[in-house]
Amino acid sequence: MPFQIYHLTAFVVSALVVLGTTPLVRRIGLKSGRVDLPNARKMHKAPMVRFGGVSIFLGNLIALLLVWWSGGFGWLPPDKEYEIWGVTIGGLAFFLIGLADDIFNLSPFMRLFAQAMVALAAWQVGVQIDFISIPFVGLISLPPSISLVLTLLWLVGMANAINWIDGLDGLASGVSGIAAVVMLMVSLSMDQPAAALIAAALAGGTLGFLRYNFNPAQIFMGDGGAYYLGFTLAGVGVVGLVKSVTTVAVLMPYLILAVPLLDMSAVIVDRLRNGKSPFNADNRHLHHRLLNAGLSHRSTVLFIYCLTLWVGSLAVAFSGVPSGYAYAAGATVLLTYISWQARKKVRS
């Protein structure tokens, strides 16, 4: 269909902008002295610029503006165009919150309060979870108060989940890129071109950024980039998949983003069980556990990539994408092989 040309345009433009602007952002960061210093918890050994999220956001924004200027939004219903800008502006606000945290080291309460206010504004403009799916019952329409609470938890929770897994070179950007590609495929298969357009720009930007962020990283995305990616992925899930009134569609975002979501949930439960604040940073994340088990930096990242690809392939299969079950079978074989290799390394 013609609108798929615009999705390809968004992907390519976003990737090219990120590839072109990231070195410039890095040079500015180094000259200004705005760097992340090594410490006992962090894996990097040299000061690193934390403003890579600037490039990712610019890539996404320029790609969407170009598609809009060239008439690509003309294929969308008016409410869908409104949702694109709602998610984009909300993503900008989350990016600015993270950027302020990178520069001024905001308190956890201040960050959460600001994020909740932005998520509330997003809910008011239509980025809403209106249904839940209950096994053996089906879809249940939610009253506004419950919709508001669940939407805030989802948007704020996913923004922080992506930020929490951003502990190794290339981990958050790679996981987000894989999730965005899966959301692009699933959104197109479910006739949700607006959500697919955001996902296409996000996929291009994150995969372009991976050129500079994969181990050994030259630049970090920072809290600004992580919050932007998390909110935007969550927003795409809401406006594109949860809006589809089918049980399968409602479950898709939670399946696609299962790896960061379950990692965050497990860490929070573990911290509370040990009498610690859920906001206290520690080494309880999945990537820390894999490193402690004996995997190398790159092996840990690649294993989590495969895990993300596997759950994404299940979403592709369940959503009815052509050859979706073949993708799922291939991803299962790949994950099995990578797990076998990882087990051998741990034992040795």
From TrEMBL:
Superkingdom to which the source organism belongs: Bacteria
One GO CC term on file: plasma membrane
GO molecular function, one term: phosphotransferase activity, for other substituted phosphate groups
Alphabetical GO biological process terms: cell wall macromolecule biosynthetic process; cell wall organization; lipopolysaccharide biosynthetic process
Binding sites annotated in the UniProt record for Mg(2+): 163, 223
Alphabetical list of PROSITE patterns matching this protein: MRAY_2
PANTHER family the record matches: PHOSPHO-N-ACETYLMURAMOYL-PENTAPEPTIDE-TRANSFERASE, UNDECAPRENYL-PHOSPHATE ALPHA-N-ACETYLGLUCOSAMINYL 1-PHOSPHATE TRANSFERASE
Name by which UniProt lists this protein: Glycosyl transferase
